[in-house]
Write a structure and sequence with these properties.
This protein has 165 residues and is an alpha+beta fold. It is 39% helix and 39% strand. It is rod-shaped.
């Protein structure tokens, strides 16, 4: 009987050791998964912010370069909104492309200049806040906005676009 109790207590200690080791492994795995998920969430958020910022910057820059003709780009007021207006002529008819911020998004509106439209008639492009255009000189435009993909306003962007004509 004495022999069985020693064997049984050694066997219980072996089982408890393996069970404890398994619990430590399981707890470590859960902690690692939680940290990994948090890091993944931050990476995805940063990627979305960067994509939104690059898209907005590239979009506005390309629109300005497409309309880069003498005296065709100006900063105007459109229905109470701060707007970058770019004029062009198609078959002797003047058209205007307007870029503006409306309801938290960058909008583009292309229409004949003599037609009055509302801001919601434009096409929603990308999320942003507080879009501002400023003519620094005759051939330099300063554009600034807040990236709207995050809850805070840390993603303030300033960039300059040169107008050659």
């Amino acid at each position: 009987m004495n022999y069985n109790s020693k064997y049984f207590s050694k066997h219980i200690i072996d089982i408890l050791f393996v069970l404890g080791l398994f619990c430590v492994f399981a707890a470590s795995s859960v902690v690692l998964i939680i940290f990994g998920a948090d890091i993944y969430k931050k990476i995805v958020s940063n990627m979305q912010n960067n994509f939104s910022e690059r898209t907005c910057t590239a979009y506005i820059t390309e629109k300005i370069h497409q309309s880069d003709e003498y005296d065709s780009i100006e900063i105007t007021d459109f229905a109470g909104l701060h707007t970058l207006s770019m004029k062009c002529y198609i078959d002797d008819t003047e058209y205007t492309t307007r870029l503006y911020e409306y309801n938290g998004y960058l909008y583009e509106l292309f229409s004949r200049t003599d037609i009055e439209l509302t801001p919601d008639a434009g096409k929603q492009v990308v999320a942003l806040h507080d879009l501002k255009f400023e003519m620094i000189s005759d051939n330099l435009i300063k554009i600034s906005y807040y990236n709207n993909t995050s809850d805070d306003y840390d993603n303030f962007t300033n960039f300059y676009v040169s107008v050659h004509s």
